[in-house]
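Apologies for my clumsy wording, but could you write out the amino acids of a protein and the tokens describing how it folds?
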Amino acid sequence: MSSHHIVREKQEPALLIANGEACSEELIGQLLEWSPTVVV
């Protein structure tokens, strides 16, 4: 997200990962920086 976006509380969508085994812990950590709710 670029710096000019204004994000209000509960405005960010959740991220759904269909196959969590295919993702590394590092990738999950990076995704958590962008989306407050990650469902694996």
In short: The CA atoms of residues 8 and 32 lie 17 Å apart. The two ends are 22 Å apart (CA to CA). The longest strand covers residues 15-16. Residues 1-40 form one domain.
